[in-house]
Amino acid sequence: MLPTTIFALSSGALPAGVAVVRISGLEALPALRLLTRKELPAPRQAALRTIVGQDGYVLDQALVLVFPGPQSFTGEDCVELQLHGSRAVVAAVMKELAAIDGLRAAEAGEFSRRAFENGRIDLVEAEGLSELIAAETEMQRRLAVEQSFGGQSALYEGWAKRLTHARAMIEADLDFSDEEDVPGSVADSVSGDLIVLQQELRRHVEAARAGEIIRDGYKVAIVGRPNAGKSSLLNALANRDVAIVTDVAGTTRDVLQVDLDMDGYLVRLFDTAGLRESSDVVEQEGIRRAHDVIGKADLVLLLEEIDSEPEHTVIPNNKDLLRVGSKLDLHGPSPAYDLCISVRDEDGLEPLREAIRLRVRKIWSGSIAPTRQRQLELLLDASNSVSEALKAGQPELRAENLRTAAVALGRITGAVDVEQLLDVIFSQFCIGK
């Protein structure tokens, strides 16, 4: 059974200046002829065409482009209609397309899935496209570009080739050890490269934490006792009123979040309920959630009013902690804190921002980093298999471990055994991509 031709709105929310409708499949080119009642324009050359419905009414004038397969995004015949971006125009054209035999509306990620199935992209590049579309900061864009344009895939393919070469050398040593033209102890000669490859894999796995932070944000928890000024600090750093600020202790009872773009990095600030003993059930829940945020935070800002009783909040030892003294305008500076601030006068706010920026800049050097848990788990499998190969005494076991490592790398890009993953991966895409 031949694949159905699909169509979807591939541009942003309507209304807009231009709306791009994409069609892909065997019936894409005949559908364009039917809509325009003219011959097709030259491939990859825009042409102005009148879009006409089956009843003869003009629907719109549009720029149309034709991308014959296999040299298209999906690897199939593709058409793009650049329409005027009104809801009525797009709805009319989509209704007309749905009425054509062999055409149906695309599902989420279906264009990208067809590109994968037709060998135009691999799974890492597909995931990179998803990240690129969702990117909100410069660093998210840079990391997604490495994935979507093949840089990350090339790294994994290079490792897989080295593993295959090492395995071939070991098996040649086993099968042809009595032949004069096969060097003695070939298996030993590949150990050096395997050690280097293992080190590269480990460094790459360690970079996963950086990839996670670039993708999901650097989490900063603002914690402390009631009335320490946590909500005021959140509002000041966000430059807008996010949290309600009053003199009543316990005003903040839930976790409030605001996302900031700091030097191209996504920074997520969390304002939490004041930490204290409380018999109020709602406040107790807020305090529990505050401790959850502390556990997940990359940086904890422990806020205390200067000259107040020392804070006894227990912060895990593995957490990056900044002790911040608040209400500098009332009390003056104190050496008991890493930083002293006044939200009212804005004193100390820029040094605090810079302290956060310095920490974020150290996270990612610009190198390729995995961003998905799926990728990380398979990289760990590959790394562990290479370790086992290096420890294996018998050449047969070493070769088998190298085969397992190569298979794990192949599963990352989709070269082998990934059918069960496809629905999960491509369902996360937007319609039209």
Defining traits:
45% helix; alpha/beta; Rossmann fold; Gyrase A, domain 2; 433 residues; 6-stranded mixed beta sheet; Four Helix Bundle (Hemerythrin (Met), subunit A); flat
Reading off the top of the CATH hierarchy, the class of the largest domain is best stated as: Alpha Beta
**How much of the sequence is in beta strands?**
15-25%
Q: How far is the first residue's CA from the last residue's CA? A: 23 Å
Q: Give the number of helices.
A: 16
Shape: flat
Low-confidence stretches: none
Indicate the mean pLDDT.
87
Q: CATH superfamily name of the largest domain?
A: P-loop containing nucleotide triphosphate hydrolases
Element order, helices and strands? EEHEEEHEHHHHHHHEHEEHEEHEHHHH
CATH topology of the largest domain: Rossmann fold
Radius of gyration: 29 Å
How many domains? The number is 3
In total, the number of strands is: 12
- CATH architecture label of the largest domain: 3-Layer(aba) Sandwich
What composes the largest sheet? Answer: 6 strands, mixed
Strand arrangement, largest sheet? 3-4-5-2-1-6
| Helix share bin | 40-55%
* Structural class based on helices, strands and sheet pairing: alpha/beta
Summarize the helices and strands and which ones pair or pack.
Blueprint: E1 5-9, E2 16-24, H1 28-36, E3 47-52, E4 58-67, E5 78-85, H2 87-98, E6 103-105, H3 110-117, H4 123-134, H5 138-148, H6 151-175, H7 186-189, H8 191-206, H9 208-216, E7 218-224, H10 230-238, E8 256-262, E9 265-271, H11 281-296, E10 299-305, E11 320-326, H12 328-331, E12 339-340, H13 349-361, H14 373-391, H15 395-413, H16 419-426
Parallel strand pairs: 1-6, 7-9, 7-10, 10-11, 11-12
Antiparallel strand pairs: 1-2, 2-5, 3-4, 4-5, 8-9
